[in-house]
Design goal:
The complex is a heterodimer of chains A (227) and B (415). Chain A is built from seven helices and ten strands. In chain A, the strands form two sheets. A six-stranded mixed β-sheet of chain A has the order 6-7-8-3-9-10. Chain A has a four-stranded antiparallel β-sheet with strand order 2-1-4-5, covered by helices on one side. In chain A, α3 packs across α4 and α5 packs parallel to α6. The mean pLDDT of chain A is 91. In chain B, α2 packs antiparallel against α12 and α12 crosses α14. The model of chain B has no long low-confidence stretch (mean pLDDT 87). The chains are: A alpha/beta (227), B alpha+beta (415). Chains A and B meet through α1, α2 and α3 of A and α1, α13, α14 and α16 of B.
Chain lengths: 227, 415
Amino acid sequence: MSEPVLKAEGLTRQLSGDVPVTLVQDVDIEIGRGEFVAITGPSGSGKSSLLYLLGLLDKPTGGKLWLEGSEVSSLTEEQLADLRLSHLGFVFQSNFLLPEFSARENVEIPIRRLGRSSENEARARALGLLKDLGLEAQVEKLPHQMSGGQAQRVAIARSLANNPAVILADEPTGNLDTVSSAIVRDILKKLAREKGRTVVVVTHDLGFAAECDRRIQIVDGRISPLA
Amino acid sequence: MPLFLNIALRHLLARRRQTLVSLMGIALGTAFFLGISAMMQGSESDFIHRLIDNSPHIIIQDEYRNSQIQPVARLYPDAVVQMHRVKPETETRGIRNYKQDLDYLRRLPGLQASPMLQGQGLLSFAGKDMGLSLNGMIPKDIETVSTIGQYMVDGSIKDLVEDPDGIIIGTELARVLSLERGEAITVSAATGQSHAFKILGIFHTGRAAFDETEVFLSLKRTQALLDRPNRANAIVVKLADPYQAQTVAAQVEAHVGYKSVSWQEASEDILSTLALRNIIMYSVVSAVLVVAAFGIYNVISTVVMEKQRDIAILKSMGFHADDVLQIFLLQGIILGISGCALGLPMGTAIMCALGRLTFKFPGTSQLTQMPIDWGWKQFAIAGSFAFVAAVGAAVLPARKAAQLKPVDILRGGGM
């Protein structure tokens, strides 16, 4: 495998309190460029917590993490935010689109925040991404005017807005019907296989996990060997 | 449109009704601030205007501010000196060499000065005795150093220039003694001197006591009546810029040695009361804006509470804490600017309406207009206070939003 896009060594996340709670413990992981990886495990096992650590949304209390070869565990909140903006894309179980903005505007927001494109360029890129995902007819619709599947595809388009190296998806099909779920799975698969993006998916759906290149099983916050 | 401004606007527009209510709070607060301050400022300016008009800007009196040190005390400053059988020099009261002082004063720019001899007189007429305050002045100077000419209702001050045996009296005195212009009255003084004067004019200032007791007559005749030839016990000064009175008074006092009292010093107690009244007024009106600011705090706090999920997703996308802070501060700025934009014209309308109000006070036939005064300063104070209140109200919720950790919301927690 070439140099990993994401690499973790002894990654640990503990919540402090009267009774400390360990969410993720001593996780070693390497995810290569273009890999399509599923993280599975029972509810409360720490899958999402691991994804938040890999997505730089949460800071580990132990261990080290590398993104595209750079050690990121000790970066400041602002530096982590900059990395999330330019290197990472997120898709959540709920689409989490901003309700006052149209599909196109939702996709434009991260592009405009990055500040490397003009308003017209941002608009063109957002329209292109929405078109690629079959949403030409929905570009000016508000989130509540779209179906769950369409809104989730807009969320995927938004995650791709700044051409990130890694897409992190937390139960992206969890709220969708079978048809929409299949479409979303297909899009994520294509992103990895055809566009060469690294896709890390947290899922309960073992069928979906089986379609991935690799499956990582988490039990009680630790990587557990697959049965 | 800039991204943060766009997001801030959409947040506010999503809660139109609540936004409008808080906006109106700021707008009305600003408008009332302007209206009330214009009234207070107007009444203060009117009062000061009357004060400046109706009293000398500076009056040089025939007394010293500090008692003079005896020569022996000056010689032995650290000793205890006891003297016996000291007989104080009998001195005729009045300003010595007042003509030289007048020459000096008249050389100063923007200044008019005239000597005056004030004293008490008695008018006996038709069996009634009336005490009078005699104001002996150089007739041709009366109109340059006083405003009494503006209050003439019958006759003219100029007549006194032509007839030094004339007298100008007030309407109250004329009414009490049934006097009319052209009639002769005899005024006597404590010196035993008396003189017959012809009434050349009648004034009405509206102040009953003044109109009843003050009379204006020639300086020469007053000196004769009071048996104080070539004496003046005051020099009245009018300035082109009355607000320079304190500085000029100090300069004059340093030169002539006599106590020079500016109108500000003479009315210190009233001016302090006005300053105190202004503090109370601005505090009360500011309180209106502070209450309005709570409306803005409420709106932005509600938006922050409702938009936790959106804030989390913005931060997960890569927005910094400062970006989120800016978005919510912008909401305060938008409300502040919009509140000012609505409130300032509303305030102007209120001020115009108040300026048109007229009153008729009992006992007067004239309509009195509500004194209103406004200037750029009031607009600046009202606008900036409203703006600061609105932005200040946004600070706390904006900081709360900025501190939100996206992972806490994504895990299903809250703030």
